[in-house]
Amino acid sequence: MNSRPELFPDMLAYAVEHKVPIMDPDALQVMKHYMHLTGSRYILEIGTAIGYSAMHMLSVSDDVKVVTIEKNEDSYRTARDFFKNHGVAARVESILGDAKEVGTGSLSDTPFDMLFIDASKGNNEYFFETFSPLVKDGGLIIVDNILLRGLVVEEEIQSRNRRRMKEKVDMFNKRIAASGMLSSFLPVGDGLLIISKKEEGTNA
């Protein structure tokens, strides 16, 4: 159990009050640990929400910069306010739009050190296929909520939409597990998938 003090209590309080899903603290610490280990400094985030995860990534180092995409205008504006209030707005490029429509052409030509996917879970495959080419060789790809709050292990799901989402997430998880990529499924938080953009057996 993570016992570290909360770095952004104002954001945590906002998330609790407004029922905004945020990343589990244990999963956050694992992600930040991987950022430290790999020296990841230029991050692409799919799914800003209120900017809580981005703020934690920015806290790893003053050299960290984040490009983050959010389709909900209210969340986008709330996140920008938090970035400004915490004095990190200059290190964040916030993009308002659906990541499925934004595409890669409007993003930086500089390869990203890490891709963090934390948006609509049924689109993990699409986000991975679209944005992982922007990550440098040897870089990280991290996907949150791969357990869907336990939904992935449920056998009887009445809701057709929930069943379809489970199928999509399960299919993506199995595809990564069967690929030649170095990957780890970590049972922290709601499940964290860590992928190294390097195939097993390659030298780098």
TrEMBL record:
Transmembrane segments: none annotated. It comes from the Bacteria. InterPro entries: Cation-dep_OMT (IPR050362), SAM-dependent_MTases_sf (IPR029063), SAM_O-MeTrfase (IPR002935). It comes from Salinicoccus halodurans. It holds the Pfam family Methyltransf_3. Keywords: Methyltransferase, S-adenosyl-L-methionine, Transferase. This is Ho5U methyltransferase.
